Amino acid sequence: MKKNILNRKGVTLIESLVGVVLILGSIMGALGVLQLVSGGQKKNEDDLDYVAKRNQVISLLIDDTSWGKMVDEDENPEMGCLLKQDATSESERDCTGKTDSLRLLNIKGELVYDFRSAVVGFSRAGKDCDTYDGTPGGGNPVCPYRLDVRWEALCSSSPCINPPIRFRGTHSFNSPLNQIVPNLEVLDFTVIKMGMFCPSTTVPNGLVAGSQTTYVAPSQVMSDQNTKVNTIGIARSNQVMVPCRRINMSFVEDMPNAGDVSAPYYAIDPENNASVAIVNEGTNTAVYEFVRHNIGGVNTYELRYNGVTVFNKPNWLTIDRSTLFQFKIVNGLVKFCIEERCYHYFPEKLDFPFRFSFRPAALPYSPTGISGVSTSMTDL
Question: CA-to-CA distance for 114 and 105, rounded, in angstroms?
Answer without folding.
Answer: 9
